[in-house]
Write a structure and sequence with these properties.
The structure is a single chain. With about 250 residues, the protein is an alpha+beta fold. The chain has helices at about 1-20, 25-35, 55-65, 120-140, 175-190, 195-205, 215-235, 235-245, and strands at about 45-50, 50-55, 70-75, 90-95, 105-110.
């Protein structure tokens, strides 16, 4: 019991250093997840993105190893895949014990639902997603995995008519410029474990606008450059700066 409490305190401490002050629901969820699955934030078992907790591929594999998982079998689904368009579908089967019938999970990936950072590796992403889903099903983990988040990776947006403004804030009306900047910002947030809400608030202040979407492309590019430099040179100072944009929690009478 004491070990569980210590693990929860450690996770909360590490998470606070990584993502800043967490809301009460986030802290409660972290404690519950720690007690139920014994996941470690320090080891990278979980990620906190947009106010939600997600398990990672590494965390799922570690969890399965602790439960003495017998093996994992993966296979590409040729009839559903299209190598020419970099679309892959995998099937994964997790065997919890030698006599297990296996738990099946499927994963798909193509250029539209993976991060630009891993473009060209869609086959591996699809396999990872399949394994993650099979593991979550096998061990009853009701927590989505980071690798399954296609939307977080800022998928390729649909084409817009020239006269339409696809996303405010690009400053030039191009339907492709702003999504690329958004991709860069998302990648920075994930790479340095930053709070997306606080980053957006900081960005708006930096650009001198009410909201980030109102900023010009040049200002957004300047902010991304500034954020990258700050995160690399002194992440702790950057976290302190971001925390200054946090809204105080409402005190209930």
């Amino acid at each position: 019991m004491e070990a569980g409490k210590n693990r929860s305190r450690t996770n909360l401490s590490v998470a606070t250093r990584a993502w800043g002050r967490l809301s009460k629901p986030a802290r409660c969820a972290l404690t519950a997840l720690t007690e139920k699955y014994s996941l470690s934030v320090a080891l990278g078992d979980m990620q906190y993105i947009d106010g939600r907790w997600y398990v990672t591929h590494a965390g799922l594999l570690r969890f399965a190893e602790k439960r003495r998982c017998t093996g994992i079998l993966t296979s590409v689904q040729s009839s559903l895949s299209d190598p020419k368009s970099a679309r892959w579908v995998f099937k994964a089967i997790v065997y919890k014990s030698p006599r297990s019938k296996g738990f099946v999970g499927y994963g798909d990936a193509d250029p539209s639902n993976v991060s630009p950072l891993v473009r060209g590796a869609e086959m591996r992403v699809a396999e990872t997603r399949a394994v993650n889903r099979a593991l979550r099903k096998a061990y009853g983990i009701g927590l989505c995995s980071v690798e399954e988040l296609g939307s977080f990776s800022a998928p390729t947006p649909p084409s817009y008519p020239k006269q339409a403004a696809p996303v405010s804030g690009n400053g030039n009306g191009s339907s492709h410029s702003q999504p690329r900047l958004r991709d860069q910002l998302c990648l920075l947030i994930r790479q340095f474990n930053l709070d997306p809400t606080l980053v957006k608030a900081y960005a708006a202040d930096f650009c001198g606008t009410e909201a980030l979407k109102e900023a010009s492309r040049d200002l957004v590019e300047s902010f991304i450059s500034h954020l990258t430099k700050s995160a690399k040179e002194n992440r702790d100072a950057l976290i302190c700066k971001l925390n200054s944009y946090a809204q105080p929690e409402e005190v209930k009478p």
